[in-house]
Amino acid sequence: MDITINGTLYNAPADKTLLRYLRDDLRLTSVKDGCSSGACGTCTVLINGKATKACARKIEKFEGAVVLTVEGLSAHEKDVYVQSFGQAGAVQCGFCIPGMVLAAKALLDVNPRPTRAEVKKAINNNLCRCTGYQKIEDAILLAAAYLLDDKPLPVPAVTSGIGCDTIRSDVAEKVLGTGVFGDDIYLDDMIYAKCLRAPTPRALIKGIDTSKAEQHPDCVRVLTAADVPHNKIGHVVQDWDVMIAIGHETRYIGDAIALVGSIRPESLDEILALIEVDFEELEPVTSPVQALAEGAPLIHSSGNIMSQEHLHRGDPDAAIAKAAHVVTRHYSTPHNDHAFMEPEVAVAVPVGTDELHLYTGGQSVYDDRRETANMLAIPFEKVHVTTNLVGGGFGGKEDMSVQQHAALMAWHTKRPTKVKFSRQESIDYHVKRHAMEMDFTTACDAHGILTAMKAVLIADTGAYASLGGPVLQRACTHAAGPYNYQNIDIIGKAVYTNNVVSGAYRGFGVTQSCFAMENNLNLLAELVGISPWEIRYRNAIRPGDVLPNGQIADPNTALVETLEAVREAFESNKYAGIACGLKNSGKGIGLIDTSRCLLSIEEGKVHIRTSAACMGQGIAAMCLQMLCEATGLDPAQVVFERADTVRTPDAGTSTASRQTVLTGEATRRAATQLALELQAGNNLADLEGREFYGEFSPPTDAMGSPKPNPVSHVSYSYATQVVILDDEGGLEKVVAAYDVGAPVNPISCAGQIEGGIVMGLGFALTEDFPVEGGYPQVKFGTLGLPRAKQVPPIEVIFTKIADERLLEYAYGAKGVGELCLIPTSPAVAHAYYRFDGIARQSLPLKGTYYKK
């Protein structure tokens, strides 16, 4: 079958999809496999000049066609798109970007000066989970100007300190598709592995017969639980079976029963179908109510309550009894899929007879090393982990998903092994946001001053612990909101069920409890007779005030300023909803939480070496700016190394909005030492071979500390969002003000916020993850992910803080990765309450413009 690709004529196999031919045969890996179902657009190419998804049809449909991938763009076009997407801050994880570039080219080739609405239409078939689309639209409009007007491209900046709009160092490789994600790795003699999963959510496995599978000509090896040296893994609690052994019960549909290795990925399902499993189906436990009932089957021998918390301060019962106004409501929030653009993939390579090199896309190479080594019962130093580019995470790549199985097969076969989730496997098997049922009581005096709150939160943590304990803690510790009152009683339980596992997800439990608290606050304002803005302003935490958890708000606290920044937007729009939120930086609560950075001078350049995982948030640019602020060095003199357990020191997991504060401060400390050497008259050549080490571990107090004012976290960020509806109930605009201290890279920070807000709009209005009987009832195309045409303009405002009020750490920067979406869903709910008078207490909101 003749087809022209990037100017070269090929005779291609008719029965292969175009995507697989481009990637597997021609190694044109800019064309990404995000779903293989035509839903995401990461595989977009141009066919005869038209943007087309390469995954959906076989090559026989394209006989004689002319195909263009990003690799085939002209040198000038490549330069323009790299500059435009970098300058606009449009690149985060980068997995969707080559497809976006080709969608842009298809538009600009026929419409060289498009409107924003036309750009939205052109990219509407391409999903992005990181940016919220606005920065991508900016980039395409900028590219149009460069191309049409033949504008010269800017000269790279020679300074890049705190507060500079800095182009990320990974922009080019992500725009042009030359950067390596896990699925872009192709090795000689590599095999492919896949698991046979549980026959039902809860079943007793009586026997596993692999003999027929082993006879398949492509089969390399079949492994079961008997082949696992240590069969338990887990990010926090070691309760997750690598594979379910004979005589044991499955706990959810994602449990692995057997692992097969094949010389061809195409034959994996054939081999799996030959494995015979004798099992007894058991009645699954599919809700926390069932799991907590007397006599309920135990998901784990320790009991069905995975974790519980009780926070109590003051005398809430007495305060509620004396209150002028009290509101009690029940709230429900659903499971939610991260829907990162890159499905999970790992490649494991045996080294000698007793070592492994694991290429992964997780949120910590050291976590992956620890769990892999523990599973194989070998010393940590026998496992070398290197990160690839990570195509989005949002918490969903903290747990092991494919790494353990790639490592296990490579260990036994001594052959490089790739394990990759299909999009449906990712949806069915990887962790989700916790579904929560919440009862909130909130009280105030006659003037609207909050006096007390009580809450009970029940979280469905699914089959395994994952991050359920810490998520429950954050949901509870933030449940009272960013307000100045101290009478609280909060009870939380995370409950095991036979549903899909729940774990870390952007917002980390606070998204759920904020939805409840902020809705109650609106109802109190109504009872008092003041505006929703006013009740927040009267109660907003201010420097020196005491948060409900007892921590004294530091001088860097600027919630009031965020409220003032959005006041006009709220008060001048009839159908505007408002909500506030706060989020911690760092693990806190007395846990040891250390980040590290090593600067080494090699061949006249400074190498920044830290294992802080970047899933798109811009770790490299943040560290670069910390370094340049301290030293004044030209960014061209700096090299940022990706996380690697041999080269980069352990900076902890990319979680809890911690990397900007903790790794930023560790980098600043190392850079300050380097700056002293430079100030002494040395240049980089003089310092060749020298190393400068920085470490930061902020002291915090444990939950339940007897101190009158414990320090739960090193810092908090604050935000207020206003969501505005039009006269038909559609989204018109979002105005969001953020206290993130000193924004390190403002355009990047704004992009993080815009992307988080769009994720929050989806959580509020369109996204759902129904589960029936333990089985997810959703496909990628039905998740309800927002697309470009649905997203309204988003205005991001950074509050201004006087220098003397800045924190001493990381030049005053605070985290934003999770806070960005926390206030969104209650702000949307409030907007609809003002629109039609209906109080909606569950998500996604029903009876709206988006979900009838």
List keywords for this structure.
852 residues; seven-stranded mixed sheet; five-stranded mixed sheet; 21 helices
- The helicity comes to 25-40%
Mean pLDDT: 96
Low-pLDDT segments, ≥5 res: none
**Proportion of β residues?**
15-25%
Distance between the termini: 47 Å
Number of strands: 31
**Cα radius of gyration in angstroms:** 26 Å
For the largest sheet, list the strands in their spatial order. Answer: 8-11-6-18-15-16-17
Class inferred from helices and paired strands: alpha+beta
For the sheet with most strands, the description reads: 7 strands, mixed
Apparent shape: globular
Total of helices: 21
Structural write-up:
The chain is an alpha+beta fold. Helices cover 27% and strands 22% of the residues. The chain contains 21 helices and 31 strands. A 7-stranded mixed β-sheet has the order 8-11-6-18-15-16-17. A 5-stranded mixed β-sheet has the order 2-1-5-3-4, covered by helices on one side. A 5-stranded mixed β-sheet has the order 13-21-20-19-14, sandwiched between helices. Helix 15 crosses helix 16 (532-539) and helix 20 (746-765) packs across helix 21 (824-836). The longest helix has 21 residues, at 659-679. The mean pLDDT is 96.
